[in-house]
Amino acid sequence: MTVYVEATMKREQMPYTLSASDLHVVLALVRGGTLARASERLGIAGATVFRAVQRIESGLGQRLFERSRAGYQPTELGAALAEQAEAIALNLEAAQSIAQGSPEQVSGSVNITTTDAVLHGLVASALKPLDARHPRISYVLHTGNEIADLVRHDADIAIRATKDVPVHLIGKHLGAIQVALFASREHGPIEGMNADQAAKLSWIAPDDALPGHPSVVWRKRQFPKIRPKYRVNSILTVMELVALGMGVGILPTFLVRGRNDLLQLTDIIKDSQTELWLLMHRESRHRRRVSAVFEHLHHSLGDALRQP
Question: Which residues cross the membrane (predicted)?
Answer without folding.
Answer: 235-256
